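Annex B, item 7. Sequence and C-alpha cells for protein A, then protein B.
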Amino acid sequence: MSTAVGRSASESWRALRAPLLITGLIVLAAIAVSIATSARTSGPFSPDSTKANGARALSALLEKHSVAVRGTETLEDAEESGDGRTLLIGPSGSLDDSDWQQIADAQWSHIILIRPGSRALEALAPGVRATGDLLATRSREPGCELHAATRAGTATVSGPTYTAPDGATTCYGDGIHGTVVRLQLDDRIVDVVGAQAAFSNDQLADDGNAALALNLIGTHRDLTWYLPQLESDSYATGDDQGAPLIPPDVRYIGWALAFAVLVMAIWRGRRLGPVVPERLPVIVHAAETTEGRARLYRRSRARDRAAAALRESALGQLHKAHGIPRRADPSAVVATVAAHTDLDPAMVYEMLYGLPPGTDADLMSLSDALDVLTQEVRHP
C-alpha cells in the first residue's frame, strides 16, 4: 500500500503566494514606469535629458517663455499637419528617403534641423550641403543680418559648416561657410543648425547661446521636439536599402527578456526558511577554555599578559562593586578600595597597577592576592 506525500492545496498556496505577490508587484511597477515614461524621450539632445549633451535646460527655457514643448520619438507625430507650429528634429536615429519626404509634405510653418544628415537636407533644405569642415569651439560674431542672430550677438559655437544656395542666410561661420543657415521656402522657414553643443545643457549658459536658441526655436507657441529613432518603412516593404542592422524594437525586447530573467530568478531562487537550531558536535566549557589559554601563556612565558588579564578582571569587579567610574584615575581607585578593605594603599596599588611578575611564583602570588581582594568584594 502506498501513501501520497504530495503537497496539499493550502500548502502549495502558502509556498507560492510570496513569489506571486512579488511578481505581481514587479509587473505593476513596470506598467507604472512604462505609463509614466511613455511620452518622454531619451538620448543626446533630448528635452528630458539632464546630461551634459541633453537639452533639458533649453526645454525649460522655452516653456518659461510660453512655448509648449512636446517631446516625441514617434514618426507619426512629425508627419501630422503642423500649420502655425514649429518642428525641431534632433540628430539621432535613422530615417529613409520616404520618411523624410512625408515630413516635408506635412504643413509645418517652421522646421529646425539639428546637425542633419544628407537625406534630411535633400528633403527639407534643398541646396544646403555639409562642407565636411568642423568649426573649433569659440565665441563668434553672427556675421549675418538674421534678426534672431543679431539680437543674440556673439555665441560660442562649434560643429559642421554648410554651403547654402542663393537667397539663404548663413551665420556664425568662418567667413565663407556658416554653422547656422536659414532658408525661406514659400510659407515655410527652415533652419539648419550644426552647432548642436551650443544648445546643450553644458553650453547653453555660455555667451549668447541661450538668446540664440530662444530666438531661433521659440518662434511659435507650439513646438514638437522630434528625436528620430530607427523607424523606417523598409522593414514592412522588404527593402534593405538604408535599413539599420538592429531592429527598431530591440530595446523593448531586451527589457522584456530582462524582466523574464528576473521572474525566473525569483521563482527558482533559494527560499530561506526559519532558523533551525543545530546541536554542536563538541561542547567546550568555559573552564577548559580558560585553562587552555593559561597553558598558552605559560608555554610562551607571557607573565606580563597573564598578569594584565588578571588585573583587568579584578578591576572590573572592583569598579562594579564600589561604583567607581571606568575611566577613574588609579589613585582614586586605590583610595576607594583601600577604604573599603582596610588594606595598605601601597599594597593595593602594587596588586592592581604594579610591575609584571618576574617568575611563575610571583605570578601565582599575584593571582592569590587578587583572588582574596575580589573575594572581599563579593563577601564584604
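Protein B:
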Amino acid sequence: MTTFEEMAFGPMGEAVKAAMPTSEADPIGVWAASLSLYSTAISSNVRLDNRRPVVVWTVLAGRSAIGRKGYALNTAAALLNKPLGGFLYTRKRAGIGNGPTLVDTLSKMELDSSGDGRTMIVEEEWASVLKDQKRCSKFSTYFRTAWDGKPLSHRTKTKGTQHVAQPLLGFHSHITPGEWAKYVSSSEALGGSYNRLLPVLVERSKMLPYNSRPQIPDTAELEDAFLWATDEEEPRVMHFSEEAGERYDEIRAIVEDRMAEMPELLASYMERAAEQVQRVAAVLATTEKTEVVSRDAVEAAWAFVSYSMNSTERLVKDAITGNNSSQADKSPEDMIRDVLKRYGGEAKSSDLLRPLWGKLNAQGIKDTVADMDDVEIDTVKTGKRGAPSIIYRLIDPEDQEHDKPALKVISFEAAKPKPKAAPAPVSANPFTNALLL
C-alpha cells in the first residue's frame, strides 16, 4: 500500500502534515475526510471538463476505538473550519435512510439556498443507517444518480413531484470491518452502489498524553484557495495538462488490467477508480488555484485511490473468509510471510506494519526477519528527494546461500533520514473539545 506522504499535495497536504503531531488519527483518515469535506464545499462552482461534479465520497473503515475514525473527522473539520467558513455548520446532514428522504433533503437545500444545493452527509455510525437503506428499493438508485450529478426527482402523494436539478451531494462515513462484512451486500456492489465510494482502512497513529491539546496550523493558503475556487463570477472548469492526461491514460489501463484479473464481485467495487483519480486530482489542483491539473496532482490522487483499492480488496476478502480468525494462532514469522505473499513477495515497511499492527511493531519485524532465512531487507531510493524506502522481500534460502553474501540484513541506520529536531511540546487532546461537525 502507498503512504500518506505520496498522497499529500498542496496547501491541504501541508495542513494535514502540520496537524498530525497533535492528533492520534491516521493521517490517511484525516486526508480522506478532508477531501470529502473540501470537495463538497467547492462543488457549486467547480466542474470537470466533461461537466461531471468533483465531489469525493470517502469511508473510514477501522475497528472501534483503535481505528480513531472520529479523531480523523474532527481533525479534518478543525483544519477546514476557517477556510470553509460556515459550510460545515449549515450544510451537514445525517441519518438519511431512504431514497425519498434523500431527494427531499437535497430539494429543500436547493430551494432554500437559491439553487445552491450543496449538502454534506456525514454518517459516523454508517452501519445503523445501512440497515434502513438496504430496505429501500429506491435509495441506491438515487444515491448513484447524485454522485453522477444528474437530475433527481421523486413523486409523493402529499408533496407531488420533488425535483433536484443539480445534485451537489457530499458523503463521508465510518464503519468497522465487521460491520462492512455484515451490511455491505454483494448485490448492491454488483449494481454499482459502492464503486462511488473510496473506503480506506485506518488505525491509530500514536498515543498522546491525556492532558495534551490540539494545535491547528495556519491555513491561510487554503482559505485563499477556497475563495478562488468558489468565486461565482468565474466558474472553474478543471482539465488535465498534456502530461497529466498521458499519465491518466496509463492509470486507466492499470486499473482495467487489474480488474480483469479479479473476480467480478471484487472488480465491481473499483469500476470507477479512474474517474475517482480524475476527481481527486481536480480537487487538489484547486488548492493551488489553477484549473490545469498537473501530473503531480494526478500522481497524488492515484496514490490515494490505489490505497483505497487495496483497502477495499482487503475488506471484501476478509468478509468472504470470515476475517482470517486463524491469524492469532500463527507465529510472527508466518504472519510476515503471509503479508509478503499478499503483496506478491515484497512490501515496504509501512505495508507490513499495517496488517501486523497490535502484533508486531517496526523493531519487532526487524528482529524477527533478522533470524529468517527466507526474507531479506533492502533499501530502495524511489526519487530524488526523501529517505530510501525499506523493502522486505521473500527469497529462496538455497539461492541466497549460493548467490549472496552470508550477511543479508542491511542496517536500518543506513535507511534512516537524519533525525529532525523535536517539535516544541504542544498538547493534543483527542479533539474532544475540537470543532465538531
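Comment on protein B: Residues 74 and 436 are 6 Å apart (CA to CA).
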